[in-house]
Amino acid sequence: MSMRVRIVGTGMLCTLLMGAAFAQEPPRQRYVIAKQPLAGALLEFARQSRIQIFSPETAESVLLAAPLEGTYSPEEALNRLLTGTGYTFVRNGDTFSIVRKREARTTSTETAARITQMSATTQLAAAPMQSYSAPVESAGTEPVVNYLDEVVVTAQRRTQKLLDVPLAVTAFTGERIEQTGANELADFLQEAPGVTVVDAGDGNQSIAIRGIGSVNGDATVGYYLDELPFGLVNLADLPNVRAFDLERVEALRGPQGTLYGAGSMGGTIRILTRNADLNDFEVRTNVVGSTTADGGDNYQLHGAVNVPLVEGKLAFRGVASYEDWGGWVDSPRQKDINDRNMQSYRGKLRFAPTDALDITLSGWFSRQEIGQSSNSLRNRKTTSTNDPRIEVEYDLFSAVIDYQAPGVDILSATSYIDYHQNFFANLGLPAPVAFNSPADNFTQEVRLASRGDGAMRWTVGGIYQDLSTDAFIGLPSGFPFFGPSLTAQTSKSWAVFGEGTYAFLDGMLEATAGLRYFEDERETVETLGTTVTGRTIANFDSVSPRFNLAFKPAPGWLWYANVAKGFRSGQTQLATPRLFDPDLPLGIDAETLWSYEVGVKASLAGGRLVAEAAVYRNEWQDLQTPVSVSVSPPFVGILNVGSASSQGLDLSLDFQPLSGLNLRLNGNYNDATYDEDVADLTGIVIRKGQRISGVPKYTLNGSVSYGRALSSDGLLAGLRGFTYLGVQYNSPRDSVGANAIGRGEDVTLVNGRIGVEKDAWGLFLFVDNITDSNQAMTGQLPAATRPRPRTVGLNLRTHF
């Protein structure tokens, strides 16, 4: 291992020794409990703390508990939850009893007697909380509670337990992401059945869900950073978000056109960062040093700090990351040309002047400098001598105002994206060629959602977006057919939407219906030198419904059926291809997709086993497909040609046979093919029955993790050991090109991790790509995107 890695390792050891001094603090626990009726909040407290709690009088209370987010002792957490409710608590050994404040001075004996005298009906109401009690156990053991039973999500724009959402949703908590040592979304997102991610190392990622993906036009998968929708005109790539200090990532599979709109045709990815904590000061660090086979050394420095500026009212959370990744692809002129340097900074200023009003201002800044993409031949070499450099930058800003009015939540989300991708290459011309793609996105969304547990729940809202993307090609003046050119594209769109759910049979049966109406006006202006050579304007609209039926026949069981329409907005045709083919339309219609799905979720064996399964069929119409209109020079136009379909099965199992032991298995079968031939002047470009580009037929992912206390006394007191082994498998993903099909390969990635941790620190040894897999993740034409070779390193985490 190089001297630099030894230095990083020494630094880790120093920080480890410092962290040990802090680790003597009394153990505390992180809680995340949304603002909700008091009874529900206390239930969540019981689940998360695993402490028995009695609350007979609050079972039917309409009082709202204060939101809770942060690291607290049980007493501190309860105090914050009960603020302003008129209730307090009395501790009785290992249990808590919730009483009115006027009764707070009763003795524990009196309180226990009062609980004993509760009516049978009241006892039954309290039973769900009692079922989450944590019995006293010997050192080194923990109560078995499956994390999926506790995860809370907001996939339907309201707070729900994951297992109560009648949709195919996979959630990754921040704690789970940290446990696996993930650096970016691609490291864990494919554990969601039917989700595939390809990172070509060029600063962005492409994501497909259940066979719905595209590299042409707008993205087919919705992508949200908190409340900010990341969408750009005619750019399908998505930012390579880092995995540090995330609260949760949600993967919604299937069309989400009603609540999430254009671009969510295949599904939606929601990245939720940790919010500023109004009460606790916190510092978190994550230091990683590693080395890559056939490549260079890698360094990562991540830090987060939370500062309450006015306790309970105003707080700031800042996150900074610096990463230096060595390359491993060699060109005839240079070794390790695909090196990457990444910097990311994120800040949140949160102001909550009252319990009803919460305002968050956010900024997110990312800078990447990349030598070249990671495409290579099997020998991890490239024949290219272009020596390009890639720069990807984006600045994101948002303001979210959340107001809890009587009976309704009102949310306003304002956001702005400033995005730049610059590509510089030496193509043997008199001067380097520059390809620049600046883009921006202004979005204003307003939503109203009912609050409470009544039979009827609803969400309504509206959204406006103003987007633009410029594509500049800086070819030297006088170059045949071209010279410097600029293509400016704009989109101004708006939509209104609503969704309502009604519960029948005491909540056993729920019916949901939703609708979204969308309009989009797009314009493209093309300039060659200083001359405007083309201007195209086109208008698009769409109506997207959703129908859902959920059935809960018994506790822990949920069956659902879902029918939904998704869409992707149309495009304007460039003027130059129409010079070669005047029949090309000025506007390319929106794509549409109808999805039909039946699924089941079940919590079995006392919560030790959670199983999910879904079968689906997607019918995809009016695909926006590039076709050749001229061979020399090579010009491409866009047409709505062909249709495609996919049908498949999602399966997910999460099992905890022993305390601290987690077994996870999930997979997807996806038969995604084109339904008809597509031809242009070069011949047949797409053949009927051919698999959709970039979509594997089978994916299978499994992991085993085990953690337990090493000892209850002595030098190892409080120390916890942890091991993790994860496997990801994808069947071949072919690439479709003009008159050619690039064949992909089976890819299996194995990652392992082992280490020790305490309250304030953790030290881990990890190996990514243990088998040093070098298979083609995309179709080979002739080069392909391949995984990073075997990477071995150390990771130190601290949390104070």
Concise account of the structure shown:
This protein is mainly β.
Question: Helices, strands, pairings?
Answer:
Elements: H1 3-22, E1 29-33, E2 36-37, H2 38-49, E3 52-54, E4 64-65, E5 68-72, H3 74-81, E6 87-92, E7 95-100, H4 108-116, H5 120-130, E8 152-153, E9 160-161, E10 168-173, H6 174-180, E11 195-198, E12 204-209, E13 221-225, E14 228-229, E15 238-239, E16 246-253, H7 257-260, E17 267-273, E18 282-292, E19 297-310, E20 314-325, E21 340-354, E22 357-370, E23 375-376, E24 389-405, E25 408-425, E26 433-436, E27 439-450, E28 456-473, E29 485-504, E30 509-528, E31 531-551, E32 557-568, E33 571-572, H8 575-580, E34 587-588, E35 591-604, E36 609-621, E37 624-630, E38 635-640, E39 644-655, E40 661-674, E41 678-680, E42 683-686, E43 698-709, E44 720-730, E45 735-737, E46 740-742, E47 747-757, E48 761-768, E49 784-785, E50 791-799
Parallel strand pairs: 3-7, 13-17
Antiparallel strand pairs: 1-5, 2-4, 6-7, 8-9, 10-16, 11-12, 12-15, 13-14, 16-17, 18-19, 18-50, 19-20, 20-21, 21-22, 22-24, 23-49, 24-25, 25-26, 25-27, 26-28, 27-28, 28-29, 29-30, 30-31, 31-32, 32-35, 33-34, 35-36, 36-39, 37-38, 39-40, 40-43, 41-42, 43-44, 44-47, 45-46, 47-48, 48-50
Helix pairs in contact: 2-3
Strand pairing plus helix content: what structural class? Answer: mainly beta
Average residue pLDDT: 82
Multimerization state = single chain
What's the CATH superfamily of the largest domain, by name?
Answer: TonB-dependent receptor, beta-barrel domain
- The first-to-last residue Cα distance is 31 Å
Q: Any idea what the radius of gyration is?
A: 27 Å
Number of domains: 3
Low-pLDDT residue intervals, each spanning 5 or more residues? 1-27, 102-147
Largest sheet: 23 strands, antiparallel
Assigned CATH architecture of the largest domain: Beta Barrel
- Give the helix proportion (percent range): under 10%
CATH topology call of the largest domain: Maltoporin, Chain A
Shape: globular
Query: How many DSSP E strands?
Result: 50
